[in-house]
Amino acid sequence: MQKHIYNITLDKVLLFLIAFTSFDKKLFPLTSSTLMSIILIFLFARSIMKKEKIRVNKEEKSTAFFFWGIFVLLIMQFIYAPHTDMLIEFSKYFIIGIITIITLKFLLRSRENTIFFLRMIVLVISLISLATIVSQVLYSILGIETILIHPYRSLQFPRSVGLYDNPNYYSISLLIGIGIILGFFQQRIISSNQTLYKIMFLIISLDLILTFSRGAIIAYFLMTVYYVLVKFNISVSSKKVFYSIAILLAIILIVPLFNDFVGWNESKIISQLQFRFFDKDFESESRYLLWSRGWDLYTSSITYFLFGVGGKNFQTYAAYGLDLSVHNSYLRYLYELGLFGAGLLLYLLITLWRKSVSGFTAFKNPLFFAFLALLLFGLSNDVLYIYEFWVIVACILYWDSPSRLAKKP
After folding, report:
1. Measured between alpha carbons, how far is 404 from 279 in angstroms, rounded to an integer?
2. Integer Cα distance of 75 and 65 in angstroms
């Protein structure tokens, strides 16, 4: 009995380390994927010593089919992709995904472990977010710069980057933290310390605004509106959606007119948001133009149409005026992995959706809102293959079907 308790405690220690390194890209000496690989080797060895038999559930078979299909496509692309080094680098994202899911399979053996892991994720994100907001205040008052913010010369207000180097990718962690908190409230998992979680929700929300990431702010708004509609059982109609969008646009456009009546920092924040959403100079690097040129490339060959232009090769086709990544998860799968790759992504997302919700309001786990936020943010950034995404995938897979390991007879 004591041994069983020790194993669970060890699992929780490992889960805390994973939660911390998942959203710390600067302080911890090992990358999250390296630590995950080390932990996986240890867990495999422990499983062999205890003579445990690993069982594969239905959802894992669906996920395995996704990865199998992706690697078949990537191997085919070695025949024609212009930059195989980029192809190898792109393949690493999916290798990391497999390692992440298998590692968490060993650790998320029970609902208790999964809830503990999600709580640790929220705690880590909240602490980093709080420190980042303090850094914003110090910069605003004293001009002190820290690694948690990134002052841009062309912008009036520094952008929050947390322990990332990029505000857009930092906002992914913030969306995940907010989504998990909303899921906790919706599923009534939090029986105590509700006030603390409400405070963490507000802290992370403010920090998300200070990233000035357009895609993240829109995803946050839509995610929270969805939560409110479901929470208060509000019926949705096209008229309500129209008026809601109109009110949001009015706030964004009209509030700057009253800058004289708000504080110095608030005025700069509002101006910064207006700049990020409505700056006309950004049209020269419009993502719509990027996607249009990408479509011309994608449809230029039947091979590209079916199997893609090559993993991470999109930005190398200078002849089509492409020098940036796709900045859209769905188009990235379509352009770089072709029609078959986009189909595999759709298959995976449908599987995860069905694991998270029945219809649109019968939620099955607290991961739905974090998952929804990633789906929405994926419309403007490449997120549906990065490490944080695979962490959410694993948590969804093992919420209803804990990855129990049985001893071999």
Report:
1. 52
2. 15
Q: Rounded mean pLDDT of 322-350?
A: 89
Q: Which pLDDT score is estimated for 281?
A: 46
Phi, psi for residue 407 in degrees, rounded to 5: -70, 140
The amino acid at residue 189 is: I
The C-alpha angle 75, 77, 78, rounded to 5 degrees, equals 70
pLDDT of residue 58: 72
Write out the DSSP string of 254-281.
HGGGGGGGS-HHHHHHHHHHHHHHH-GG
* Cα–Cα distances in angstroms (integers) from residue 65 to residues 68, 340, 343, 345, in the given order: 5, 13, 12, 11
Enter the pTM of the model.
0.84
Q: How confident is the model at residue 318 (pLDDT cuts 50, 70, 90)?
A: low
What mean pLDDT do residues 387-402 have? 87
Q: In this structure, what are the phi and psi dihedrals at residue 328, rounded to the nearest 5 degrees? A: -165, 115
Question: Which two structure tokens, joined as six digits, stand for 309?
Answer: 């232009």
* Cβ atoms of 18 and 35 closer than 8 Å: yes
For residue 157, give the nearest of 177, 140, 174, 169 by alpha carbon: 140
Band (142; pLDDT cuts 50, 70, 90):
confident
Q: ∠ at Cα 117 (395, 356), nearest 5°? A: 25
Q: Which helix (H) or strand (E) holds 53?
A: strand 52-54
Please state the domain count of the chain. 1
Indicate if the alpha-carbon torsion angle 73, 79, 80, 83 is positive or negative. positive
Q: Are 322 and 315 in contact (CB under 8 A)?
A: yes
Domain that holds residue 207: 2-407
